[in-house]
Amino acid sequence: MDGKRQDYITWDEYFMGVAMLSSMRSKDPNTQVGACIVSKDNKILSMGYNGFPRGCSDDEFPWARDGAPPDNKYLYSTHSELNAILNYRGGSLEGAKLYVSLFPCNECAKAIIQAGIKTVVYDSDKYAGTPEVIASKRMLDAAGVRYYRYQHTNRAVCLNL
Predict the structure, then answer these.
(1) What's the number of CA atoms in the CB half-sphere (13 Å) around residue 151?
(2) CB 3.0 to 4.6 Å from 94: which of 90, 116, 121, 159, for a disulfide?
(3) Global pTM?
């Protein structure tokens, strides 16, 4: 065999795969979102998934989407992007890239901008028409944060754990 193998995965496939794998840690029965923050030189800096804050038992807090607050999950859950930012212990995230399985909401966009993250690669944008995502895109645009949709390669990757 001459030369290197040609069927290795791309950086985008690798890091979106890490984000998607992270989403599998979420205990949310309806929505699982994962995030992976990467340095300019393609080193993983942090990861996160949606769930409740440390010390808030996921057996005692509500997972329901319906019902009035405080009986649904929305006042308690932390999104994957914010968890990834808060999980980072290495200093500045200035210039980093964020891979996330769902386009960030307006609250996460604020944290992304404030953290200095400069690129967002997302998979799904299923809430594109909502006020939260419209506001998110407006802020990301104003702050000069580039975002683009992950281009699926449809490559099958199998992990037997």
Answers:
(1) 3
(2) 116
(3) 0.94
- For this structure, is 81 an active site residue? yes
Distance CA 43, CA 59 (A): 34
d(CA 22, CA 25): 6
Mean predicted confidence (pLDDT) in 36-61: 96
Six-digit token string for 52: 């409740």
Contact criterion met (CB below 8 Å) for 130 and 106: no
What letter represents residue 29's amino acid?
P
Residues 67, 98 contacting (CB under 8 angstroms): no
- Paired strand residues for 46: 37
Q: Tell me the β-bridge partners of 120.
A: 98, 147
| Two tokens, residue 27 | 């205990």
Please tell me the distance from the alpha carbon of residue 99 to that of residue 1, in angstroms, as a whole number. Answer: 35
Please tell me the number of Cα atoms within 13 Å of 91 on its side-chain side.
Answer: 4
The rounded distance, in Å, linking the Cα atoms of 158 and 161 is 9
Q: What is the mean pLDDT of residues 69-78?
A: 94
Give the Cα separation of 139 and 147 in Å (integer). 12
DSSP annotation of 73: G
pLDDT of amino acid 12: 96
Site of tokens 């985008």: 12
> Closest Cα to residue 101, out of 29, 6, 12?
12
